[in-house]
Amino acid sequence: MARLVENQPAYILHRRLYRESSYLLDVFTLNHGRVSIVAKGATRGKKNRSALLQVFQPLLIDWSGRSSLKTLINVEAPDKPFNLASRFLYCGYYLNELILKLSPEMESNPELFVCYGDTLPRLTRHSHIEAVLRHFEFQLLVLLGLAPDFSHCESGAPIMAEQRYVLTVNDGFVTQGAYAKQAQNALIRSFDGATLRYLAQGWFAERRTIGHEPQNNTDPHIDRQTKAVFREAKTLMRQLIDQALQGRVLESRELFKHIARSQ
Questions:
Q1: CA of 84: how far to CAs of 45, 51, 124, 146, 183, in Å?
Q2: How far is the CA of 61 from the CAs of 95, 113, 125, in angstroms?
Q3: Sheet with 172-175: strands ordered across
Q4: Domains in the chain, ordered, with CATH?
Q5: Which of 93, 149, 154, 176 could disulfide-pair with 190, CB 3.0 to 4.6 Å?
Q6: Distance of alpha carbon 52 from alpha carbon 63, whole angstroms
Q7: Tens of pLDDT along 140-166?
Q8: How does pLDDT run across 65-120, given as a tens digit for each residue?
Q9: Region of residue 34 (left: phi > 0; alpha: psi -120 to 50; beta: else)
């Protein structure tokens, strides 16, 4: 007998047409993680659910099925969709793609679900984009077990704000001096210990910029030291995410590049 799951809080990460009138949905749920679901007849007649089955729309869904592909039984919207526009919309797609490509299928991660739900309204409030993305990326990597130890380097010593560190694949963070000796003074990107501590302590979560406050790390109102922290954090998160992707490409990142070149 097919298992029935009811009233499961969920967000759609990706939607694509299936056959003539159905959708294949990649859904992120509170208690079941990422789930693949077919919405049969979703574009047809009185049961047309196209407007409801959208990304950034909080949902309550019922499904059944014993295989990896579930069947949608019912869907409700307990709240209005998050209205993302312009670059904030592209950021939303980026969050979705990170979860889609990095989170295991059918593996519960309620903390990540809550983090995602908390991040979407920050994008609708025109928060500091760089801060929102860095905080989400960090939380995502930590909650999926893909982040190195941000409190201690490979020797076991605490990360120090006045030190610089190199990120290694197997040993986490190594002091720049120790790495230079091991790699015969090879030139490689290092990161300020203060940046690592800022990420671990949730500093980016507090960068809530509204109104006349800066919207990105190129804003002239941000001091030079803060710009350096944002720049390093972006580079570090990209390096960690690229390691986790293992060669896979983020389409949303390529979209960002295309938009930047066209402006």
A1: 29, 16, 6, 28, 46
A2: 21, 15, 27
A3: 172-175, 164-168, 191-192
A4: 4-76 (2.40.50.140), 86-148+177-262 (1.20.1440.120)
A5: 176
A6: 16
A7: 999 999 999 999 999 999 999 999 999
A8: 989 999 999 999 999 999 998 889 999 999 999 999 999 999 999 999 999 999 99
A9: beta
